[in-house]
Amino acid sequence: MCLLAVLSIASVIVRSRKKSSPAAEEEDPTILYLRRHRAASLLPPVFTYEELESSTNRFDPKRKIGDGGFGSVYLGQLYDNRIVAVKHLHNHHPTATASAGARAFSAKSFCNEILILSSINHPNLVKLHGYCSDPRGLLLVYDYVPNGTLAEHIHGNKSLFRNGSLTWQIRVDLALQIAMAIEYLHFSVVPPIVHRDITSSNIFVEKDMRIKVGDFGLSRLLVYPETNTGPQGTPGYLDPEYHRSFRLTEKSDVYSFGVVLLELVTGMKAVDWRRERREVGLVDLVVGKIQMGLLEEVVDKVLVAEGGGGEVLDGVGAVAELAFRCVAADKDDRPDAREVVAELRRIRNQIRGCGCGCGGGGGGEGGSLKGASEVGLG
C-alpha cells in the first residue's frame, strides 16, 4: 500500500509541480505525503530550489563532490554560512530523460530517506538538514563530511589517502563505529531499519577519523514476521540469500558489513574485474584463501609493513575470521550486529593493551546515544 501511494505521488510529481513557495508547499504531493506520515514539526526544513541552486553556484561542476547511482552531490554554502552536501537526484534533474518508472523509484527513495533520517539520531549516521521538492529537482541536504569516503581511504582513489593513514588500530576503530551504527538501526529503532546498501562508498570519514554512514535511499523498515522485497543494493555487497529468497532481514546488512571488513583487511575492492574470473568478488577470493589457510596472501601490504611483532597480524586474523562469519552463505550462521560490536570491542581492547605500537587511535566510539527511536511510515 505504501509503495502504491508513493508511485502514485511520483506520477503527480512528474506531471505537475509549481515554483516553491509556502502556498506551493501546501499543494506539493511529495510534501503532502511526508506530512501525512510524519508530523511537520518532526520533518527537516524545506528549502526552495533557488536557495540550494544559489548555495551550489548553480550546481557548478567544480562543486561536485560525489556522483552515485541515485544522484550527484555538490558542496553548498547556505545563507547562514553552514557548509553542507546537496544531493540532486538524477531522475528528477531538469535534463533527465528517465522513464516514469525510474522517476517513481527516485521519488520513493527520496521520501523514504527523509522519513527514516528524520526519525533517527546517532553520532555515526549522517544528519539530514533539509530537503527540496520542486519540478526542477528533488534535493536532499546533509552534513558535509570533508575527509572523503572509506572507499577512497582504503583504495587510494585520492593520493593523500594512501600514505599510511589507515593504521591497523584506526581500521579496527572505524569498523567498530560502523558496526555500532548498524547495531543502532537494528536494535534501538522500532521497527528495526535495514540499510540495504552498506558499502565503503556510503561510509564517510571525518577529519578526526570518526565515520558517518549515509545513503538511506534503499533502507527499509523491518516489519515481522518477514519482509518480502525485490533485492536491491550494490554488486559485491548484496546478500546472496536475500537475492535468492527476496526475504529481507537484518542479516543482509551484516553480510554487507562483512564485505567492508574484508576491504579493511585486504585493501582490495569488493568487485574488481581485473582479478581472475572466480575471484572478481572479494568474498569469493578471500573466503577461498581463508579455507586454504592462505589469508596472508591477501592481507593489505600496508598492514604487513606496519610490524607490531605479530600482534597486528593476529588482530588481522581475528577480524578476518569475524568477516568470514558475517559473509556466511546461510544467514543463520551469521552473527547479529550486537555480536559483531562485542567482538570488535574485544579486538580493539587487545590492540590498546598490547603495547605493540600498532598505530594511533581513530575516532573512538562517538558520543552518547539517544534512546530508542520509533519510526512509522503509516
From TrEMBL:
Protein name per Swiss-Prot or TrEMBL: Protein kinase domain-containing protein
Alphabetized Gene3D superfamilies for the sequence: Phosphorylase Kinase, domain 1, Transferase(Phosphotransferase) domain 1
GO molecular function, one term: protein kinase activity
Protein's UniProt keywords contain Signal: yes
Signal peptide: 1-16
Superkingdom classification of source: Eukaryota
Residue numbers binding ATP: 87
Keywords: ATP-binding, Nucleotide-binding, Signal
CDD domains: STKc_IRAK (cd14066)
Organism: Camellia sinensis var. sinensis (China tea)
Keyword Metal-binding: no
